[in-house]
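Why does residue order matter? Because the sequence determines the fold. Keep that principle in mind as you read this record.
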Amino acid sequence: MMSYLTVSTVAEWSCFCIAFFCLRTDKDPLWKWFPAYLLIVCLVETTGIYIRTTWHVTNAPLYNLYLPIECIFVSSFLFHQLRNFGLKRTWLYAWLTLFTGLYLTESISNNWERYSRQVVVLMSVIFVLAALYYFYLVLRSEQYIRLGGHGPFWWVSGVLMFYFGGVVTYIFFTYLLQAPASDSIQYSVRYIIFKVLNVILYGSWAYACICRYRQLK
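Structure:
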């Protein structure tokens, strides 16, 4: 049982509970479906632990199946925020088409057995660029926004920090996978970095849900 209580699973399930409570009456489609997406994330993470610890096989195929869900939801949410600044839906369709083509190409070439790392890197870069563009438009906007209590700002902030950190980590993937954090710590630097990034992401998303809840009260 303790193997399921990791930094990531605690952060994910906590975020899900907060989102479920805060967004259960939200009328906006993407905010309303956000808890459902988080539930999928939690189930995938928990199932991945079960596959690794009980069956002792790689859980890469499971995470490969999850990738399109992650791409579609995060892309749609980012577009939902950028659409308020006039971004056309064509950009979203073009990106999802490109992702689908590259995802199928890499998955088929790997026989669906290895993690589609190149697709993940590209997806992360696109999310970082979209998040930076969102911040640029917010800074240019003449509309007053109290960022401390603005849900979309914190949601996009989590995306920016998580996926930017992910891109840097994947660039140095081999080194970070092998390098221990210290002589007294058994985990690789990469493992620790991703745990920290998970806490940042789901912490930011949880706070975004709280902001959204306060806004709708």
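The CA atoms of residues 20 and 35 lie 5 Å apart.
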